[in-house]
Amino acid sequence: MAMKFSTEDFKERIKENIGDDFMRKAVAGAQERLHTRRLDAAEELGNWEEWRSHGEEIRQHVLENLDYYLHQLSENVASRGGHVFFAKTGEEASRYIKEVIQKKEGKKVVKSKSMVTEEIHLNACLEEAGCEVIETDLGEYILQVDDHDPPSHIVAPALHKNKEQIRDVFAQKLDYDRTSKPEELAMHAREMLRKEFLTADIGITGCNFAIAETGSVTLVTNEGNARLVSALPKTQITVMGMERIVPSFEEFEVLVSLLTRSAVGQKLTSYVTALTGPQGEGDVDGPEDFHLVIVDNGRSRILGTEFQSVLQCIRCAACVNVCPVYRHIGGHSYGSIYSGPIGAVLSPLLGGYDDFKELPYASTLCAACTDACPVKIPLHELLHKHRQVIVEKEGRAPVSEKLAMKAFGLGAASNPLYQMGSKVASTVMKPLTKNDRISKGPGPLKAWTELREFPAPEKERFRDWFTHHQKEKGDGKS
Amino acid sequence: MSGTIQNRDAFLANVASSLGRERKQRVERPVWKFQPQHHVLKDASQEELVEVLRSQCRLIHAELIETSLADLPKRLAAAVNLYGGGPLSLWKDERFSGFGLDELIHKQWPAEKKEVNIWDPVLGEKNIELAEKANIGITFSDMTLAESGTVVLFSSPDKGRSVSLLPKQYIAIIPKSTIVPRITQAAEAIRGKIEGGEVVPSCINFITGPSNSADIEMNLVIGVHGPVKAAYILVNDC
Known about the structure:
The structure holds 2 protein chains of 2 kinds. Chain A is of the alpha/beta class. Helices cover about 55% and strands about 10% of the residues of chain A. Chain A contains 23 helices and 13 strands. The longest helix of chain A is centred in the N-terminal third of the chain and has 25 residues, at about 20-45. By secondary structure, chain B is α/β, with parallel strands linked by helices. A 6-stranded parallel sheet of chain B has the order 2-13-8-5-3-4, with helices on both faces. Chain B has a 4-stranded mixed sheet with strand order 9-6-7-10, sandwiched between helices. The chains are: A alpha/beta, B alpha/beta.
C-alpha cells in the first residue's frame, strides 16, 4: 500500500463512503467508545493537562535536537551489534531492506503493524522481489487477506468491516468454515499465523519509540504479534520514521503512558517490549541479526517550518476519534493511509498538495482534535495554515470557494449591486425559509442544507437597522 | 562486535540544516518543567499498592491469586491444574528454588506425569520448540507495576522471551517485594542499572494480562497471538 491509495477524486470517495451505513455506524460507535475510554483514563490521572504539557515539552525538545539524538541512537545500536541505515527516501529504505533479505535468502517475511512501511510501499517492493509478506496484526491481516483493502483508521485498520464480511473473506480465502463470532475468527487467525511466525526467516516491525540513550526500539501491542515477529525470525528489521525517538527510558515511559491512554484508554497495553540490539550472547531466542532503518521521506522538509509541531505526533489517533468530519466520511475518504485530522495535516506535507490539497478542507476547524492531542499539536491551526498556503502560495483554492469569493468581490465592490443584493436576499429566500431556517437550499447551498439547516437572511438589513437604531437612540437622548 | 552505520553524516547534516543550524555535538537532557509521573501513587503503602493491583487485575482479565510463601507450592500446583496441566515451560531461575518450589518442580510434577521443561541455553533452538508446545509458561516478575497491573521481565540466556509468549497460557509469580507504583519506577531502575555499568537486557517485556484484540467490530477478544489466559500469583515475601 502506498500512502495514497485511491485515484478517485475526493468528492467521489466521500460520496461512496457516506452512503455506507455500516461503516458510518461502526465509525460513530468506535469514536464514542474510544473517546469515552480516553476521557476516563485521563480523568483517572487527575492532572491530564500537566501530562500533556510534559509530553509536548519532551517531543519539542527531541525535534529541536533531532540530529543529536539520532546520532546517539545509531551509536548505541551499533555498539550492541545492530546495523543502522539512514534512508533519505522511501525508495532507499525499501531497497536496503530488500537487499538485506536477499542476502539472507529470505523468502517469508512476517510483519507487525507499521504505518511507515505502508508509507514507503515496502510490501509491494518485497513482493516484487519474490518474498511472501504476511501482516500479523489481526486488523491488518484481515485487510491483506481481503485483497489488500486499505486501512481506514491508524489504530483500528479494519474498523470499516463487519464480522460477517470478515467471515466471508476468511471463508473464501482461508477455507474458514466457522461462524462470524469475533472469538472464532480471531482463533482462526491465531492458528494460521502461528505457523507463519514459526517458519518465517525475516521479521519486520515498526517502532513506537526509539530510545537514544540505550539504542533500544520499543513496540506496543495488545495482540503480542510484535513480540513474535521480534522473537522468532533470525533476522529482524525495524523501520522507524526519523522523529520517533526519545532521550531515555524515563521519557519513554511518559510517552507510552500518554499513547496507550489516548489510543485505547488502557494504562498500558498487554505488551510493551523494549528491544536492544540483536539477541545477547548466549540468548536462544531473538534475532541473530538486527537492522534499524531510519526514514526521512519528507520529514526533514517539515522541520524548521511552521508545520514542525506535526512531527510531535505519537500516532495514537485520539484526534481521529473525536473528529466530526471523520465520523461522517470514514477513513477511506481521505485517500491516504493517514486519515482524520492528523492525516489531513500530514498527508499534504509528506505526499504533496497535488494529491492531498482537499484534505485540509475536510475539517470544521472545531479544534476538538487539538484538545484531544496528548502532545498538544495545534492540529486545527495547522489545517488553517495549510488553507492559507493553498490559497496564497499555491494559488489553488477550491473552485467553489473561488467562485463564491469572486461573486462576493464583484458584488461588494459595487455599491449599487451590494445594496440590491442585501435588500432582496430575504425576499428571494423566503419561499425556502421556515422558522427562520433554510433546510432545502438551491444551487451551491444544497450541499450544506442536505446535512444541516442554514440560517435565513435577516429581514432587516444591518445598514437599515443601524440607521434606525441611531435615530431611536438620538431621539431618546434629546 | 559492532554493527555498521550507513549514510549518517549526510542525513544528519540535512536535519541540522532544516533546523537552521550546525550539527549539535552535545545536548544536556533538560530538567523538565512538568513531572506529573512522580505524583502517581506517591505515598501509597505496599498494602495500598496491592489493593491497586487487585482492582487493576479485574480490568485486564488477569486472574490474581494471593498466597503466603508457605502455601505457594500448593497454590501454584492448583493453578496449573486449573489451566489443564502440562507440558510446562519454565525459566531457569534460582528464585524457583528460593521460593521453595524445588519439590513441586522436580518431584511432584514429574510424578504426576506432567512434562516440565526448564529453559536451558545448552539446548539451543529446542527450547523454543518446547515452549511452543507447552500448555503453560511460568516465570517470575522482576518488577511489578501496581497502577497498570504489569509484570516486567528482563531477558537473559536463562530467561528466554518465548516462555511468556509461546505457551497457550501464562502464569507469573509476583513476589510482593517487587511491587512499585508504576512504570516510572521501572524506567528509573533501568536507568539506574545503566549508570551502574550494567548492560540493558536484549529484551525487556512489560506484560499486562493476556493477549487481546478489538480489531473485529471493536469487540474485545481475549487471546490472540500471545497467551489466551494469564494468572498472577502474588506471594507475600515481605
